[in-house]
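Researcher: Structure for this, please.
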Amino acid sequence: MDLSVAYGFIEFDEPSYRLKIEPNAETDRWESALREHTDQLVESIQQIKSHDSTSRILTDELVHEEQTFASIPVSESDDFESIIDSIQSLDSDRDGIVLRSTAEYANEVQRLADRLCTPSELTETPVSEQFQKELSDVVGNDKNDLEFRLFLVDA
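Model: Predicted structure, token format:
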């Protein structure tokens, strides 16, 4: 029933349900309802993606021991250059950065952080800061859904 409401075939008007499309309606009517729902879904996803890509890095921060760290999510598809790009897009009013990933990806995050903390690695990049590892942490309530965090302070 819930899926039929979600697809726009049935309306839920508490406490009852009402058919929006009769079961014997023309195929065009069913296709139109599906197309309308799909268009709305695609538009919603695009809005979420555009909002996420423009504001996530700028607004997501963590505070540790009275220091503010700008959050940089790291996934398997990220490389050193994408991390550099993320750092470049950050607000400069911070004490450092925190690289965040799934716990399974912690080793790669450590390698990326090692490069960020090596001055010679940064000479060919637009990043002017020097970083130093502060601490790492694993957080989460479920052992299957842990987040690895590596805090780097501006040196």
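Researcher: Any notable elements?
Model: The helical segments are 2-6, 27-59, 80-88, 106-116, 119-122. The radius of gyration is 23 Å.
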